[in-house]
Amino acid sequence: MRHSGGPQVTRRALLGSAAAAGLAASGCSSAPRKPAAPAPPDPQTVLLTSLITGKEQLVSLYGRAVAALPARAAALEPFRQRHAAHLQALRALLPAGSGAGTFPASPAPPASPSASPSERPSAVSVGALRDAERRAASARPAQMATASPALAQLLASIGACEAVHVVALGRVRD
Asked: Which of 6, 15, 97, 131 is deepest in the core (most CB within 10 A)?
């Protein structure tokens, strides 16, 4: 039976128009696609990176103090070594490939006696070390509030050590 009322659509025409509609619906265009937004950084990695940076600064500060206070170097070196150990423990928790934590754990080299004043490390007093330790220890509770359980436990230990450093540095004179 044939319909005699309107235009006839062939099977080939119907398939061709369906294919064209499919291409149009799939977004086939010459405009480049926008790249997907990068995933936000992991909060634990951000915290760890910040902690590592702070520890790198403390290790550096002690290295400068050891160089600037040669008579106190033997007393200050154990403090620097403990901070270097903290730095190593923090780096061990950092996910592989995060790119943070490139600071060497060794102390700054002492200034040579013939070095000009501008080449010598800036002087760091024992009082400045105590202040840095006090600031670091006081920051730990807030950091622990957002840390994973393993990192919070490490931060509690690090904070306790820093608090003891404040007291112990009171016995070291400039």
From this structure: 131
